[in-house]
Amino acid sequence: MNAPARVPRHIAIVMDGNGRWAKARFQPRSFGHNAGRKAVRDVIEGCVRQGVEALTLFAFSSENWQRPEDEVSALMGLFLRALDKEVDELHAQGVRLRFVGDLAGFGDELRQRMERAMARTAQNTRLQLNIAVNYGGRWDIVQAARQAALAIGRGELALEALDEAMLGRWMSLAELPPLDLFIRTGGEQRISNFLLWQAAYAELYFTDTLWPDFDQACLARAIDDYARRERRYGRTSEQVAATVPPR
Ligand code: IPE
Ligand code: IPE
Ligand code: MG
Fold it and tell me: Going from the N-terminus, what domains does the chain have, and what CATH number goes with each?
């Protein structure tokens, strides 16, 4: 008998391949980034339909500031426009929006709009949507370590009490279900400094599909693939078979 379908509780996606998608159409890279918006909407809808609890999208990495200036400013413009246009719809769908990353790296206008969108959707529970911007996995570990050091310095935490679980509480997304499925589109098989800590036991899924072409059907394929994986967490297959799955 087949095991019951397992839906990942938390999915993260490296939305890669916009530039190549545009290049294949003899268009500027920003054309590909714009086209990627449709894929974002579709995947959000797919997650809501399938009952995924949290979705974390990599929109701009700490390293992406090194892109050509016109591409960076096109991306910032796109974020602003998307914030203006999409937040009402997300709110109506019951999506809670969070931006994760070093938001201090953005201009006041963009940062304030991000903060307003987060506050506005804070009570929503249907899908926890996290957009990683100016995010890096190493930055995340450092900011958590700094907070731990501050707590130790203030005498609120004993050094001996600082273990993986404790440091994990200061990592981004700590309040959400653990990351189950890590997807990267665009054909590259690397993490590119995305969720290093959180991906420790995530299932990895790579597809050649370029991000603007990714849709609900592609998402469903990734989820099907995930459902067939055996998550052993260091144990043996026999041990796993003998335990009742969490859901
Ligand atoms: C990902 O697509 C989007 C961002 C990094 C913002 P790319 O722009 O990296 O597209 P490719 O990899 O060049 O095709
Ligand atoms: C990772 O894609 C970042 C985002 C998708 C936002 P990149 O295209 O920047 O990654 P590398 O440079 O190919 O590793
Ligand atoms: Mg890329």
Answer: 10-135+179-241 (3.40.1180.10)
